[in-house]
# Entry
Amino acid sequence: MTEEAKRAATIGVVTISDRASIGLYEDQSGPAIIAYLSRVLTSPFHIVRRIIPDGFDSVRDALIGLADDEHCDLILTTGGTGPAPRDLTPEATLAAAPRVLPGFGELMRQESLKQVPTAILSRQIAAHRGACLIINLPGKPASIETCLNAVFPATPYCLDLIGAARLETDPLILKSFRPKQ
Ligand SMILES: Nc1ncnc2c1ncn2[C@@H]1O[C@H](COP(=O)(O)OP(=O)(O)OP(=O)(O)O)[C@@H](O)[C@H]1O
Ligand SMILES: Nc1nc2c(c(=O)[nH]1)N[C@H]1C(S)=C(S)[C@@H](COP(=O)(O)O)O[C@H]1N2
# Structure
């Protein structure tokens, strides 16, 4: 077994919201991500948490810090993916992680569209910075499960391919797919 396969994954959970970051409303999306991971993952992991305002520099710097200093294998962001002027999460993600995986954004929007027509407004992307995969989720708490259910079957294999920690899921809850064992 490789060292990557044996070690606990480090997962960054980043809430990006002007108002949640100053306590004007309670962040529900970050906790929804953590609850999802706790339900689905059977392999060991620990969470590094951030709640930050919208903006290009704030988000880019947080993502780079989580990837390079905290050695995150996976970062899940929530919020700031829409078309409003301060929604800059996709641009900041691209600045931190130039190698985009377009299928993630496409599939999350497709699944979200089955629930709300405004799903097309999310510019969410996924991209990797070396051995760290970053996935953007919309800000709405209800979008978390829909989007993660869409992309999580392929996420553990993606982490294998970029040299990140190995993730295992509970097959009764969510089957992850690895073409080669
Ligand atoms: N992290 C979150 N926790 C709980 N509710 C959220 C969160 N993010 C967004 N929402 C809800 O979704 C609505 C629309 O989300 P949107 O991304 O437009 O947030 P926003 O209003 O632009 O946030 P902000 O102004 O704080 O950046 C919010 O008004 C809020 O009700
Ligand atoms: N599954 C799902 N996707 C969704 C939504 C939702 O309620 N559920 N809201 C949409 C809306 S209204 C917007 S504006 C965009 C961007 O949201 P964000 O700026 O909070 O990231 O996500 C979209 N994607």
Observations:
- The chain is about 40% helix and 20% strand.
